[in-house]
Each structure stands twice: as structure tokens, then as C-alpha cells.
From TrEMBL:
The keyword Chloroplast does not apply. SUPFAM superfamilies: (Trans)glycosidases (SSF51445). Belongs to the glycosyl hydrolase 5 (cellulase A) family. Pfam families: Cellulase. One of its GO terms (biological process) is glucan catabolic process. Residues 1-22 form the signal peptide. One of its GO terms (cellular component) is cell surface. Residues 84-354 form the Glycoside hydrolase family domain. Keywords: Glycosidase, Hydrolase, Signal. One of its GO terms (molecular function) is beta-glucosidase activity. This is Cellulase glycosyl hydrolase family 5 family protein.
């Protein structure tokens, strides 16, 4: 595998024009009439209307005012991951997400929404442009967050593609941030960018540390003081913080980590985890040893934060519930992790809002999963 350098980022747009057909299809997805502009005049007219609506929406937002990352984290409070890239909403279809969900989240007391974006598949031209219809849908999500007085994190979530092909990821990731940074350069400071969710696989520490200044530099061309979220490799592991290298002179960075420990509890029965998919009835009772394990990790993160003067976001945490039906255990774990983050001044975002009974804290038929919601909000 080639080591990707800053040179690639500098010519990323040009590289796309020569990107191989097979690689392009695999990394970005074959463009379709639904994914990008069609050829008909009717479709073109619809695109013009969408762009006008999007411009008018963005023009109505408050203008950007710089805020320190410490103040940003303090304002984030409790947060939640919502309307991820796999939701039907992004394809213009009816799914589980509706505008009411954003209001419901805000009314419950959540202050931040993290939006997992699968933007790679929405690059529809060899010049690296993102599908304008998809961008209008993103405008709408941001608009909902702004109207509900919430911080919104735009999380580039194509980590699985990046883990398999770092060279392709370098090109696509650079283009995504050129596009998003330009589009949202005037958005209020409650719009925050997250470079890449859970770098892993081919994106090891050496490659990730080399990419970070380039990706940050792309954003800084149009957003010189907007706060940017970045985390370590190995799925944003707290154990990898010591290997994270950040641009020392850029003080508008927030560092994130994810916490799902112990995995045999939080992921028991999860079909996508070979080591845990056959587990069940694993307990978490809040024993002194179990609480000490959480505190040890969070103390380590806190010490790193203070030493490097970087505020912290716990960007994901949750316990899967389709097999683990012991709601009391799941709520106890969630409350313990929430308290560990809050007591150390970390912002936090729970995974996930609604996902058909997995991690979700909301069910369209039953409503809020009360014990989890209370654990998240400290009730």
C-alpha cells in the first residue's frame, strides 16, 4: 500500500478525473438519476429550485462568530447521534426520521446532534462535487438543529471504506471537506466539522497523523476559526490518544474518543461483531471493579486533555439491546459512562436515537426508552 502524503491532498480534485472506473464505482458508488443530476430538463429545473431553496435557507442562518473549543464543548452538553447516512431520508424516501424527531430530541433536553454522513457515495462528478440534492437535504437537517437551538456535528462516517483503501479515502475525504467547508463557511458556530469517524485498518496512526494537517488545512482555507473534531485511530480508541499528533498552532480543535467497554457487554449478540455475536446474558451491575474500569479510562483521557490543552467529546457510547434485554443493566452502564464524562467536563453524544431496537433510545411505537433516556440526561 502506498503511503498517502499531503501532495495527494493538494491535487485531490485533479486526481478524481483520472480515477479508475472500477475504483470509482467501489469507493463512491455508481452515479444514478437518484444520486446525482439527471439529463432531463425537468430534472435540471428541479435542481435549480433546490439550489435556490438551499441558498435561501443558509442565508437565514445566524452568521459565524468564533468560539473557543472549550466554550463549544461546555455548550454541547448531552448529545445524541441521529439521522445517519443509512436512513431513507437521504434518498428522499420515507423512513424512520422526520422533522418532529429533531424537535423531540431538543425538547427532551439534548443540546447536540451528531449526524453520521456517508458523503463518499454522494460524490457524483470526477471534479469531486457532491450531489446538490443531497446537500439540500443536509441543509435541512442543519436548519432543524439551528431552529431547535442545538449544536450540529457533521461527522464524515465513511470509515469502513477508508479502512479498506486508504489511497482512495485520501482523495474522497479531501474532496468532501473542500465541498462542505466551502458550503458552510458562513454557517453559525453551532455547526461543527468532524474529519472522520473511527479511522482504522489501512488508516493507521502514521497515515492518519499525516492526513490531519492537510484535512484541517483544507477546512481552514474557508473556515479559519471554526472548531473541528478529530480523534485517534483504532476506532477512536482512548488508548490511542498518546499516538495522536495534532497541529500545535491550531487551537480550534476538539478531540473525540468512543467508549463501548466492555465489548462483551455492550455488543453481545451484535451480528456484525464475530467475537460477540453469539454472546448473551452478559451482566453489568455497576460493581466496584466495573466502575473502576470506566474511571481508569476516563481519568487517562482527562489527564491527556489537560496536558495537551484540548477539550474532549465522547462522540459515541451505548449498549446494544436486541439480544441484551436486561434494560436495567444497560441503563446502569449508560448512567455510569454519562456521569464519568460529565464529571470530567467532556461533552457526549449517545449512539443512537432510533434504530429498530438496537441501541436506540426512541421507539416509534413505544416512545422513549425511559431508563436509557433518564441515564443520558441525568434524571
Amino acid at each position: 500500500m502506498k503511503t498517502v502524503t499531503s501532495i495527494l491532498f493538494g491535487i485531490a480534485v485533479a486526481c478524481l478525473s483520472g480515477y479508475g472506473t472500477a475504483a470509482w464505482s467501489q469507493a463512491a458508488g455508481d452515479p444514478t438519476p437518484e444520486d446525482g443530476p439527471g439529463l432531463s430538463s425537468g430534472r435540471d429545473a428541479d435542481l435549480v429550485k433546490d439550489r435556490i431553496r438551499g441558498f435561501e435557507t443558509r442565508k437565514s442562518w445566524p452568521r459565524f462568530k468564533a468560539i473557543s473549543p472549550e466554550a463549544q464543548v461546555a455548550a454541547m452538553g448531552p448529545g445524541i447521534n441521529i439521522v445517519g447516512g443509512y436512513e431513507a431520508y437521504w434518498e428522499g424516501k420515507k423512513g424512520t426520521f422526520s422533522d418532529e424527531d429533531m424537535k423531540r430530541v431538543a425538547d427532551a433536553g439534548f443540546k447536540t446532534v451528531r449526524i453520521p454522513l456517508f458523503a463518499f457515495r454522494k460524490i457524483y462528478t470526477t471534479q469531486g462535487n457532491l450531489d446538490p440534492v443531497w446537500l439540500e437535504r443536509l441543509d435541512h437537517i442543519i436548519d432543524l438543529a439551528i431552529k431547535n437551538d442545538m449544536t450540529v456535528i457533521l461527522d464524515e462516517h465513511d470509515f469502513e471504506d477508508c479502512a479498506k483503501d486508504a489511497d482512495a479515502c485520501a482523495i474522497l475525504l479531501a474532496n468532501v471537506w473542500y465541498e462542505l467547508a466551502e458550503r458552510y463557511k458562513d454557517a453559525p458556530n453551532t455547526v461543527v466539522f468532524e474529519l472522520l469517524n473511527e479511522p482504522n485498518g489501512q488508516v493507521d496512526a502514521a497515515i492518519w497523523n499525516a492526513w490531519i494537517p492537510d484535512l484541517v488545512g483544507i477546512i481552514r482555507e474557508t473556515n479559519p476559526t471554526r472548531n473541528i473534531i478529530v480523534g485517534p485511530v483504532m476506532w477512536n480508541s482512548a488508548d490511542q490518544l498518546e499516538n495522536l499528533k495534532l497541529p500545535e498552532n491550531d487551537r480550534n480543535l476538539i478531540v473525540t474518543f468512543h467508549y463501548y467497554t466492555p465489548m462483551e457487554f455492550t455488543h453481545q449478540g451484535a451480528s456484525w461483531t464475530p467475537d460477540f455475536q453469539n454472546l448473551k446474558d452478559v451482566r453489568w451491575t455497576g460493581s466496584p471493579e466495573q466502575l473502576a474500569a470506566i474511571n481508569t479510562t476516563f481519568d487517562k483521557v482527562s489527564a491527556w486533555s489537560k496536558a495537551h490543552k484540548r477539550p474532549i467529546l465522547l462522540g459515541e457510547y451505548g449498549a446494544y439491546g436486541k439480544v441484551n434485554t436486561n434494560l436495567s443493566d444497560r441503563a446502569s452502564w449508560t448512567r455510569a459512562v454519562t456521569q464519568a464524562a460529565t464529571s470530567r467536563g467532556f461533552a457526549r453524544a449517545y449512539w443512537y436515537y432510533e434504530d429498530g431496537g438496537g441501541f436506540g433510545v426512541w421507539d416509534d411505537e413505544k416512545g422513549w426508552v425511559g431508563p436509557i433516556k433518564d441515564a443520558l440526561l441525568g434524571n
